[in-house]
Amino acid sequence: MSFESLGLNEPLLRAIRSEGYTTPTDIQRQAIPPVLEGRDMLGCAQTGTGKTAAFALPVLHRLLENKPTGPAPEQADDNTQKYAKRGRNGRPPRHHGPRKPIRALVLTPTRELAAQVLESFETYGRHTGLNATVVFGGVKQGPQTAALRRGVDVLVATPGRLLDLHNQGELDISRVEVFVLDEADRMLDMGFAPDIKRITAEIPSKRQTLFFSATMPKEIQKLADALLHHPVKVTIAAQNSAADTVKQGIYFVERPNKIALLQDLLSDPTMHKTLVFSRTKRGADRIAKRLNASGIPADSIHGDKSQAARTRALDRFKSGKTWVLVGSDVASRGLDVDDISHVINFDLPGDGETYVHRIGRTGRAGATGDAISFCDGEERALLRDIERTIGKNIDVLEHALATGQATKRSRASHPLAATAPTRGDNAGGGNGNSGGNGGGNRPKRNRNSGGHNGNGDGNGNGNGGGSGKPKTKAAARRRRAKRNRSRFAGQPGAGAGTGASAN
Length: 503
What we know:
Layout: H1 10-18, H2 26-36, E1 41-45, H3 51-65, H4 73-84, E2 104-107, H5 111-124, E3 132-135, H6 142-150, E4 154-157, H7 159-167, E5 178-181, H8 184-189, H9 193-202, E6 208-213, H10 218-227, E7 232-236, E8 246-252, H11 255-265, E9 274-277, H12 281-293, E10 298-301, H13 307-319, E11 324-327, E12 342-345, H14 352-359, E13 369-375, H15 380-390, E14 395-397, E15 411-412, H16 423-426, H17 446-449, E16 454-456, E17 462-464, H18 473-489
Parallel strand pairs: 1-6, 1-7, 2-4, 2-5, 3-4, 5-6, 8-13, 8-14, 9-11, 9-12, 10-11, 12-13, 14-15
Antiparallel strand pairs: 16-17
């Protein structure tokens, strides 16, 4: 099937050809025809499937084919004055004449995604005469309001800034014909549900609604049921599954060794464009700082950065000036960068769905990619949740800095894997090394270590040197929990009796 067979008009086909696209993706083949017919759409597709074009192309087509509807210019002017009464401090906006109506509204959860969606509309609509703009927070609103006063056909927005400008009387969404909610699951995760309800109350009830979500939990389905009218449902690939083009692997490594392992992996020249995920914003900054200090060009990107700093970091990464972009989960959705070679989870995410969307930044558009994760002792439960979500075990990779095999699974080879024995293999004996990851350097009190002195047998089995009877029930529970974790993990020397085998 070709784009021509989908029924798109010639200006759009010309733009598609100039971009080098010839064959639509699965979601584009299934979504574009019903959207062209004016049907509501409920789309569930993983990242990297061409979802943005699946709604941008038919929306542009419909705006071209259908003349603007709504009040006459005189009425539009009265409507503008009505909204002007809501202005800040009672002052109306500077523009008082009739404006071109906003005919299509696209809501996105993040600034980065909003900017990339706008880029798609501008790319595909370059020959249509339709214009689009974007509004989001974190930057001065002056240029955004100036664009709105000139009139736009398509508005891409984040919920907060959209409501701010609407309350100031700077925009009118009462004549929207097509409403697109992109990354709806992420919207709810970020707490935008009340904003979505306020926005949908301001747009016409008679409209076409396109609802896209990468996952479809119950709360998302409930929201979709409230917004959509007899929608066409399109589901691409299994929900919560990782793309087949992404090769996954995991290193079991203690937290203090994570940065050294990351630096060693990034010394491989094949990691020319690597996206690293940190659990926290401060952690992302710290990782980028350590990488730069070691001679590896890196930037960080997260919600606490100004929009200018985020845009600059993204541009440097796209252009190749930096090899590594370190981000929090704000970057895991909607980050559209070509040819990302590797994704590294420095910290495992809190749920399997986020993991899928993190690693979905690589292996896109038919290309292959690598997703590497680091897992320390406190992240084992997160790993189990991830593996349940994706329906398979992740291959364990070897490295000199890794702590060893934590489950009874076969290891996988990796180009950067080292054959040197791991820490646990050297434990015990007369070298005075810790029996594993149990903290032989800084033995805890009785509740954790069972005594300060322990013996390692070289196979990771340690015996506590003291009775270490816990003094409270809480201490006993903590001790049992630690022993159970060690038993599950199978880490060398991770038992209750880890300690220094100095003899």
